[in-house]
Amino acid sequence: RVGQIWNAKDGRAISKSIPSPPLALHKRAIFVSNGQGRNLTRPTGRPAVIIIIPMQALAQDHVLIVDPPTVLSRLYAVQEAKAYTSNSTQQDDRTAALEERIRELEDAVGSSFHSFRGALQQISSHIGLQDVSETLVGFTARPNDDQVIRSDIQAESTPELSEVRYDGKDLVDKGILTLEDCRKLFDFYGANCSEIIAFFDNAMGSFEETRRCPLLLAAMCTIGARASAPRLYRQCLNETYSLIQQTLLGPVPSLETLKGILLMTVWHKNYRLLGLMLSIAYQMQLPETALSLADKTSEHDEDSIDRARTWLSFCCVDLVHNTNKTYFISEIDRYTRLGSALTSTPYRRNVDYRIRAYLEIYVILNQAKKDVLIPDNIQQQPITSDVCRQLQFYDKQLESWFRRNDEEMDPIYQTFSKPQDRNRMEIPYNFARMHLNGFILHGLKPDSARNDPLRVQFIRAAVDAGKALLKCALRSIDYQTNLNYSIDYSGSALGLAINFLSRATCVAYDCIDLEGVMRILAQARDMFEGAKLAGKADEVSHILDQVAEIKRNMTAAKLSNNTTEVDLNDNVEDGSDFFLNARLPLSEFSLDEPSIEDILMYSGE
C-alpha cells in the first residue's frame, strides 16, 4: 500500500514507516537513499513514485516539514509517467533520466541543508534559546513512528536542536528575584494594577498557582516593579521578554502564557507583540471558540469560556488601539456582537460585562464610520441634512449605550472589586463622542467652518467631549495616582483628547471656546507634572503656547477689524488641508508608526 517500501527482489514489505505522500501515486516507484535510486515494483504489479529526500526543499511544489529534535525535510515529488509503450528502450531512457534528476536534486538540497541547520543554530544562539521542545510554532507534530531519518542526516543532528527542553523555571527558580520580592511584586500588581485596564480580567489566581506559568508571573512582576520597585524593573523586564522570545520557536503556549503576552503588549505599548499573539491565538483556535458562543447548540465549560474571554479581550485591545487604522483581526465585526452571549453563560465573570460594553460601543463607531466617513459626503460644504441625521442618530445610540451601562453596572463600582472614584465608562463614552462628532472635521480647511452653522454644532460637541474626557481624569485621585506607571495605557486616552483639542483649535479656532480649551490643557499639564512626567508636561505646554498664540492673533485681528485674513503663524498654512499636512510635535504621545495618539481624522499615510 502507499507508504510502504517493497523489496525489489522478492516483493516483501521491508518498511512501513514512510509517511504517505500528499499527492496520489502512479506508475513507477523509486526510493532514494544516500544518493542511490532503486526501481521498486509492488507485488500487485501496480507501480508508484515515492521520492523521499530528508533535506531542505527548494522548489515551490515541495513540502518542508520541520520536526525537532532533528530537522527533517521530506521532499515528495510525484511524476506521472506516460502510458506504457511497447518500446522498452524509451521506458528505460525515461527511468534513467528521472534517476539522474533525482541525484541532481539530492546534491543541490544536500548542500543547502547544512546552511539551513546553521541558520537555526545562529537564531537559537541569538535569542538565548536554551529550552525548546516538541514542534516549532506553526508546524504540526508528527508521531515518532511516522518518521524516517536518513542515517547520515541523523548523525549530523545538532544537540542544540535535539536535546533542548523547556524547564518551566520562574523568576525565583532562576535566582532573578527572591521569593519575598517576587511575592511583594505579585501582591502589588493585584492590589494596584489588576483593575486599571477595564477589559482585562482582574480575577487572579494565588501566587502559588501563578508560579506554574513563568511568563504570566514575570509580566505581573514587571508591571509591579515598574510601579513600586524600580531597582527590580529591568531584570524582570528582560526575563519577561526572554520568555516571550522562547514562544517564537517553542511549543504552542498555554492560555495563561498568552495572557502574559497580552499584559506586556498593553502595559508597555509594545504593539508588535499583537502580531505574535494573533498568530498564536489563531493556532489555539480561540476565534472559533468565541464564535461558538453565538451557537445555542454548542456546549461550553469554564475552560472554553475563558478561551473566548481571552480572545474578546484581545479584540478590545485591537479596537481601542487601532480605531483609525486597519484592525489586526480580520473581519473584527464578527466578534463585536458576541458580548451578550459572553454574559449569558453560567461561567460569566464581572469582567465580561465590561468586555461587552467595549464591544458594543465599537459596534456603533465602526458602523458610523462606514455610513458617515467612508462615503466622503461629509466634506461637502455646507454639510448635508443626511449627514446631520446620521451623526445625530449615532450620537443618540452612544447616549443610550452610556445610560444602559449605568443602569446595568453600578456607576461607581462598575463590576470592579473595590469602589471607584470615577465612572469607569465615562472615558470611553466621551472618547466615542469626540471620535464620532470629530468626523465633521475630516478634510476641513482652516477658516471654512464658520460658514457652515450646522457643522459648527458638531465641532463644538466634539470639543466638549474631549474636554469632558480630560475632566474625568482630573477628577479621579486614583487615576492620577497610578498615571506615572500606567501612562502607556492610561495616557493614550489623554493623548487623544489633547491632540484633538489642539488640532481642532487650529482648524476651527473661530468656532470654539478657546479660553475653555486653554484652561483644560493647563490642568492636564499640571496633572502630568504632578505625576512626575516632565516630558509629557513639556509637550502639553508647547501645545498650550500654540493655542495661546492663536488666541492673541484672533484678538489682534478683531481690534483691527480684519478677522478674515489672520496670519496663524507657520504651524498652519492657510488654504491647506490641515489633516493631511499638519503634525504638531507630540512625540511623547506617539509610537514609531502611526498610532492612536495621532489625530483621529489624520489620513496622511
Could you characterize the architecture of this molecule?
By secondary structure, the chain is mostly helical. It folds into three domains: 5-162, no CATH class; 179-284, no CATH class; 349-589, no CATH class. Helix content is 53%, strand content 2%. It contains 21 helices and four strands. The strands form two sheets. The protein has a two-stranded antiparallel sheet. Strands 3-4 form a two-stranded antiparallel ribbon. Strand 3 and strand 4 form a beta hairpin. The protein is globular, with a radius of gyration of 31 Å. Keywords: DNA-binding, Nucleus, Transcription, Transcription regulation, Zinc. It comes from Aspergillus arachidicola. InterPro entries: prtT. It is found in: Nucleus. This is Transcription factor domain-containing protein.
Brief sketch in words of this structure:
The protein has 605 residues and is mainly alpha-helical. The protein is 53% helix and 2% strand.
